[in-house]
Amino acid sequence: MNQDHVRNITAHELARLRAEKADIQLIDVRETDELDICSIGGYHIPIGQIDIRQQEISREKPVIIHCKSGRRGEMAVLFLQQNHGFINLYNLDGGIVGFAELDSSLTIY
């Protein structure tokens, strides 16, 4: 796999995987204060800690990384692929804002 390429997953695809109770790991790379506004239940590793906490991220199953809009998630995926050799990562396209289109209970900020 090209380490410079980020694979994206849509909010609809994530919702389907969750409904099917698929064995995935969801990582939230937003800052702690953003979690207080809204959350979709991801394991929290702020993007600034992604390097030192990369061992907490599974290499055995699909990992979906998300942020608010998708940009930080994309940066995290690229970093982990290029610097730590991950090959099982996906970025949530549109981030939590995109997911809120499916879940109106989420507060957009």
What does this entry look like structurally?
The chain has 109 residues and is of the alpha/beta class. It has a single domain, classed as Oxidized Rhodanese, domain 1 (3-Layer(aba) Sandwich). Helix content is 29%, strand content 15%. The protein has helices spanning 11-19, 32-35, 71-84, 95-99, and strands at 8-9, 25-28, 43-44, 63-66, 89-92. A five-stranded parallel beta sheet has the order 1-5-4-2-3. Strand 4, helix 3 (71-84) and strand 5 (89-92) form a beta-alpha-beta unit. The radius of gyration is 13 Å and the shape is globular. The termini are far apart. 27% of the residues are buried.
Contiguous uncertain segments of 5+ residues: none
Globular, elongated, flat, extended or rod-shaped: what is the shape?
A: globular
DSSP helical segment count: 4
pLDDT averaged residue by residue = 95
Do you know the CATH architecture? 3-Layer(aba) Sandwich
Identify the strand order in the major beta sheet. 1-5-4-2-3
Roughly how much helix do the residues carry, as a percent range? 25-40%
Structural class determined from secondary elements? alpha/beta
Give the biggest sheet: 5 strands, parallel
CATH topology value: Oxidized Rhodanese, domain 1
Taking the alpha carbons of the first and last residues, their distance comes to: 35 Å
* Beta-strand proportion: 5-15%
Using only C-alpha atoms, the radius of gyration works out to 13 Å
